[in-house]
Design goal:
Number of strands: 12
Mean pLDDT: 95
Number of domains: 3
Oligomer: single chain
Strand order of the largest sheet: 2-1-3-4
Low-confidence stretches: none
Radius of gyration: 21 Å
Structural class: alpha/beta
CATH architecture of the largest domain: 3-Layer(aba) Sandwich
CATH class of the largest domain: Alpha Beta
CATH topology of the largest domain: Rossmann fold
Shape: globular
Helix content: 25-40%
Length: 319
């Protein structure tokens, strides 16, 4: 029986097309890859795919619902759509503090404007004003403010003082924001993690224009490479992501995890460069094939992280 690997994607082309080509070129008996095709979605009905690699459902709620329906009928979805729906950056930081991963000091802020269909009475449990002195004293300035569930460097502000904070926060509307300590780094790395066992550590300069961010001359020692790999694996094993990136900023020899909720990470040839692109295509293809070969028809083939596994049996998180 042929097992199909589907790639669900939006407007991106270089990565999904190269991934499909790479899987099919390997000519593995019983394995074929193609773009996902959806003409109807009926409750509890199989999708026809053994594996689906999700690159777009974060932006399309219909696709997220389709993937959950596919998953309960046995499709292995990369990444788990149930966990991805529940996850966000503030929780990730909180989790990191429990598993021994250094992260910037971070607080979450209620939205500047009231959410739709709410009034001031909806927030009777929220102190007004907030303890701004306690918040600013904990985080310090300069600081960064960014959406707690966003991505792609959208609505990100660097703030020098409290006046600038209040000025910028007034622009954020109904977005729930994070206020985060600035890590003044000597080196910075973006790290692919695939299958929770394959890591590629890429020098990255976030202060460069987008198309030049992977043009960085950082050269980590063997010891630092090992430390960063251990952090990346620790994070992804706890979160349960099989395709993710972790951004690490090195300050005074300590890697701080800055952003590690990127379950549909940039893999475009023009931005990541040829060598990184070739690695992520090859490694993703091998992982997708291995996953398809291990799929059990009609079973739960989703991947779950250590946080959920430990929670279900009442085990504490460990550093």
């Amino acid at each position: 029986m042929t097992k199909k690997i589907g790639i669900l994607h939006g407007k991106e082309r270089s990565f999904p097309e190269a991934l499909i080509k790479k899987i099919n070129e390997k000519n593995i008996k019983g394995i074929v890859a193609e773009p996902v095709k959806i003409d109807k979605v009926m409750q509890g009905e199989p999708s026809g795919y053994a594996v689906i690699i999700d690159r777009i459902s974060q932006d399309v709620p219909f696709y997220r619902a389709f993937l959950k329906n596919a998953a309960i009928s046995g499709t292995a979805v990369i990444n788990n759509p149930f966990w991805w729906s529940a996850d966000e950056k503030f929780f990730n930081n909180a989790l990191a503090t429990k598993i021994g991963v250094p992260v910037p000091k971070t607080v979450i802020l209620p939205s500047r404007e009231l959410p739709d269909d709410t009034s001031s009475e909806s927030f009777s449990n929220l102190a007004y004003p907030l303890d701004w002195e306690g918040i600013f004293g904990y985080v310090g300035f300069p600081a960064y403010m960014k959406p707690f569930a966003g991505g792609g460097w959208k609505n990100v502000y660097r703030l020098n003082d409290r006046d600038e904070f209040f000025e910028r926060h007034a622009e954020t509307g109904q977005l729930v924001m994070l206020l985060q300590e600035e890590i003044v780094f000597e080196e910075y790395y973006r790290c692919y993690c695939i299958g929770r066992k394959h890591v590629r550590i890429m020098p990255y300069e976030p202060r460069n224009p987008h198309h030049l961010r992977y043009v960085a001359g950082f050269k980590p020692s063997a010891k630092m490479l090992k430390t960063m790999e251990e952090i990346v694996l620790n994070i992804n094993n706890h979160l349960g992501y099989d395709f993710n990136t972790v951004e690490l900023a090195i300050r005074d020899g300590v890697p701080y995890a800055i952003d590690f909720c990127n379950p549909a990470p940039d893999a475009d040839l023009k931005s990541v460069g040829q060598e990184n692109f070739d690695w992520v295509v090859e490694t993703s293809a091998n992982h997708a094939i291995e996953t398809a070969q291990n799929v059990r028809e009609g079973a739960d083939n989703l991947s779950w992280g250590d946080y959920i596994k430990k929670s279900t049996v009442g085990k504490p998180l460990t550093k």
